[in-house]
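A reminder from the course coordinator: this example appears on the midterm review sheet, so study it carefully.

Given structure:
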């Protein structure tokens, strides 16, 4: 400290200049957080695999939706207006790749118009950055939408942007409220106009320098960042920095009142309170540095606080001593004696109970905390929409979709199956229906949309039993055609005999006509036989072969009739009418021949289809059959375009849930869908396909898995790190154990209080998913400070020669006011988060506020001394007893 005081001006000027230069040059931290996004999942997460899969295929598109809320059912004029808007939007911006007109067909209208016809959905597929999507939404609102219409624009990108904006608005409110609050509290505590400016200046420089360094680290080293980064820097640096300043200024005042000179008072302050401050800051630093062991980038983004703590220590050991030297005792003007902290009467009263009657003190703590902990259900919520005000258009639109179409329709789960090669056969596609059927059986699934069921309803035409019924109808039609040809040929046969009888006996051509009539009689007999055999199960292929042969015979008969007609003509017969009749009979035979050819073709198609069915393994496996060429059919092309990607290598399945996509039930359903798909693809052409899952419910499922694993790992690392540091600094293995244990008791009591308020009281689905992690890190890292404040003073007094009980009571009297003041100030800085309106921040603030007050007013003064005095000299085990 002597060196710092000696070079105080160069050090201070250098730090101020560095802060100013870095602040001007540093990237915008808020912009970096926005670009990082609300969800930053690992590449191994299913939803990230899906995003990567689509991006590699050049189809990393998003969908936003216009939601029309109409006063009455859409009439023709309104339909035309909406369709016109769809066309206009399609040409509005280059990032728009597709706009689905809700009235382009009856099938589409069923999907996009509610049953009461008052809610109309217009999905818009876009391919662009979040900024571009937001700009598009503003452009649509300004240039396309009719002023008097009630239309909401919603979608994942819009909602995430609203969350980001709410977080930034909340940060601005928090910064202003925090500064006002700290100044007011310090004014009350120190009763000095000058003193409050010291923490504000010190922490202000710390915050600006830390923010700049973190922003550079993000650019240079890929440092994690999220919406939480800045607001945690504000709350913790201002709260903790103020606490540390109070600790230093209080001890500095004590030293001045003891008659020491300014420089000596500063040196003594940093030898005593400075040591406590260093231990506390180190514990907090380790707590936040432990977050670096998390896998989840959003959790890791709080590691920026560790940077802030390091900078804070630098400022407290350089700028604050300079202020002390410059202002001397004027630092506390106009207050005099009141500037020093008096002994805490409350903690003196607590000490008489906890030190003198430890078991009663422990019992009181148990009575207060255990009932709270027993109410804790660990209800978590993944509903991003709860994070923002319900008055936002994106929320209104989403709620309107849920009300009109069902909660699950607004944001379906997407199942992606991607093979190395394109889907080559229609038989492969039939397995999709089998997979879809299995998914549909999962509890919580409303319907599935894919190639085989584009509207979510099963296409009956694909089922073999339905197709066999159609084939049976085709055979009946073929049989009817044969019977009709038989009747026509019978008539021709009769007319041929009649014509032969009209010729003179032995006249030319008569024999040919009789021969043709006999031939037709034989063909008719064979047709009758084929018809009967078809009814009895003759294979269509054999029937087609027989008919083909008979068709050839009819050709010969037709030629015979024509030859007989020529003979009659050459003989000069005068039977003119007969010539015309023979010509008609020949035409009738030819028509019968053509009819047989058509029947033959139909039977051959039936035969080919039956052969295909018999040769296709998927028919036996799935009960489905798609005729060859169906996928290339022009009418089927829109379906293929919608539900395939990457040149037909990938298949998309949209799963509509029965519940809210953001709910915990949806997460459970997604887990079951994943298990079902993995089982269902076994033994199918998709067994070796890459499988991924997308959609908000899938993202939340990944969040749940990753955050749970990260919580356990990070908490373990943090607690072990704290134990090691406290073990070394206090030279005791016992003291760190019950310090950490008391903080765990505080955390679970605080989160129980938070759950009671927000879930049982306000009716939310649960505590926001990120809150337990951040609440734990904040409360443990900050709460350990207060136990260090007390027990380090206890160590100091104990080393000074006081016995355990006296050392504890003296320490509690001296540190009580400091700890209570620090807890109130730190709770106040977190209380400044409440007006932010961001639910997760309000809940984190609730945990920290209730935890710090519970710890500072009950657990720390009642439990810690009681346990300490119970161990006696054994509290220093294994180093001294």
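Designed residues:
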């Amino acid at each position: 400290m002597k060196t710092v005081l000696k070079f105080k001006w160069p050090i201070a000027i250098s730090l101020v200049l560095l802060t100013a230069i870095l602040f001007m040059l540093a990237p915008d931290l808020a912009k970096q957080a926005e670009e990082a996004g609300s969800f930053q999942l690992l590449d191994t997460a299913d939803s990230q695999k899906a995003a990567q899969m689509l991006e590699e295929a050049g189809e990393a598109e998003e969908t936003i939706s216009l939601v029309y809320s109409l006063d009455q059912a859409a009439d023709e004029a309104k339909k035309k207006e909406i369709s016109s808007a769809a066309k206009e939007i399609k040409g509005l911006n280059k990032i728009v790749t597709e706009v689905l007109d809700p009235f382009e067909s009856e099938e589409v209208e069923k999907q996009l118009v509610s049953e009461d016809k008052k809610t109309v959905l217009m999905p818009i597929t876009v391919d662009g950055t979040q900024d571009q999507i937001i700009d598009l939404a503003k452009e649509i609102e300004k240039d396309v939408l009719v002023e008097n219409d009630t239309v909401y624009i919603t979608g994942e990108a819009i909602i995430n942007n609203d969350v980001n904006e709410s977080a930034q608005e909340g940060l601005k409110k928090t910064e202003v409220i925090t500064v006002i609050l700290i100044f007011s509290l310090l004014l009350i505590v120190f009763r000095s106009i000058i003193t409050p400016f010291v923490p504000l200046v010190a922490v202000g420089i710390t915050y600006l320098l830390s923010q700049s360094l973190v922003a550079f680290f993000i650019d240079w080293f890929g440092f994690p960042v999220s919406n939480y980064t800045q607001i945690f820097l504000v709350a913790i640096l201002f709260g903790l920095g103020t606490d540390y300043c109070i600790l230093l200024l209080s001890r500095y005042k004590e030293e001045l009142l003891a008659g020491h000179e300014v420089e000596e008072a500063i040196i003594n302050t940093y030898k005593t309170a400075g040591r406590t401050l260093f231990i506390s800051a180190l514990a907090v630093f380790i707590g936040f540095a432990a977050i670096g062991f998390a896998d989840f980038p959003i959790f890791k983004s709080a590691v920026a606080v560790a940077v802030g703590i390091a900078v804070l220590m630098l400022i407290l050991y350089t700028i604050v001593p300079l202020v002390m030297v410059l202002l001397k005792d004027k630092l506390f003007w106009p207050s005099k004696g009141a500037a020093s902290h008096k002994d805490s009467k409350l903690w003196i009263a607590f000490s008489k109970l906890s030190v003198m009657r430890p078991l009663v003190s422990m019992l009181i703590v148990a009575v207060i905390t255990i009932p709270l902990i027993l109410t804790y259900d660990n209800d978590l919520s993944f509903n991003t929409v709860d994070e923002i005000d319900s008055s936002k258009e994106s929320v209104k639109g989403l709620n309107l979709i849920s009300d009109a179409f069902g909660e699950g329709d607004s944001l379906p789960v997407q199942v992606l199956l991607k093979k190395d090669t394109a889907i080559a056969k229609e038989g492969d596609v039939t397995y999709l229906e089998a997979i879809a059927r299995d998914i549909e059986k999962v509890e919580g699934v409303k319907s599935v949309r894919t190639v085989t069921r584009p509207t979510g309803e099963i296409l009956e035409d694909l089922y073999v039993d339905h197709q066999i019924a159609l084939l049976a109808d085709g055979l009946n039609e073929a049989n009817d055609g044969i019977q009709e040809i038989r009747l026509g040929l019978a008539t021709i046969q009769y007319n041929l005999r009649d014509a032969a009888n009209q010729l003179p006996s032995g006249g030319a051509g008569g024999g040919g006509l009789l021969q043709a009539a006999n031939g037709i009689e034989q063909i008719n007999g064979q047709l009758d036989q084929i018809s009967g055999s078809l009814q009895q199960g003759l294979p269509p292929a054999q029937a087609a072969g027989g008919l083909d042969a008979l068709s050839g015979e009819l050709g010969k008969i037709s030629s015979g009739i024509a030859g007989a007609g020529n003979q009659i003509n050459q003989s000069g017969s005068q039977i003119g009418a007969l010539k015309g009749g023979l010509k008609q009979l020949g035409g009738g035979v030819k028509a019968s021949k053509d009819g047989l050819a058509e029947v033959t073709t139909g039977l051959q198609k039936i035969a080919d289809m039956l052969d295909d069915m018999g040769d296709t393994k998927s028919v036996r496996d799935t009960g489905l059959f798609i005729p060859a060429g169906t996928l290339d059919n022009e009418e089927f092309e829109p379906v293929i375009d919608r539900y395939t990607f990457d040149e037909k290598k990938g298949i998309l399945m949209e799963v509509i849930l029965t519940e809210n996509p953001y709910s915990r039930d949806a997460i459970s359903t997604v887990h079951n869908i994943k298990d079902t798909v993995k089982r269902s693809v076994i033994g199918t052409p998709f067994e070796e396909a890459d499988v991924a899952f997308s959609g908000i419910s899938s993202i939340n499922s990944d969040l749940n898995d990753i955050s749970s694993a990260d919580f356990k790992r990070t908490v373990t690392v943090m607690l072990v790190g704290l134990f090691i540091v406290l073990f070394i600094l206090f030279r005791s293995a016992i003291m760190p154990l019950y310090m950490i244990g008391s903080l765990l008791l505080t955390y679970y009591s605080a989160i129980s209080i938070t759950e009671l308020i927000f879930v049982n009281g306000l009716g939310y689905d649960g505590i926001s998913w990120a809150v337990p992690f951040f609440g734990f890190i904040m409360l443990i890292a900050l709460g350990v400070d207060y136990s260090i404040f007390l027990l380090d003073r206890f160590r100091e007094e104990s080393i000074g020669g006081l016995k355990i009980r006296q050392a504890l009571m003296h320490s509690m009297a001296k540190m009580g006011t400091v700890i209570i003041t620090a807890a109130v100030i730190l709770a106040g800085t977190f209380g400044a988060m409440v007006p932010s309106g961001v639910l997760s921040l309000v809940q984190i603030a609730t945990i920290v506020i209730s935890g710090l007050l519970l710890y500072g007013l009950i657990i720390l003064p009642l439990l810690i001394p009681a346990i300490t005095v119970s161990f006696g000299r054994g509290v220093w085990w294994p180093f001294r007893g």
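The domain at 412-463+624-694 is CATH 3.30.70.1320 (Alpha-Beta Plaits). The CA atoms of residues 820 and 856 lie 6 Å apart.
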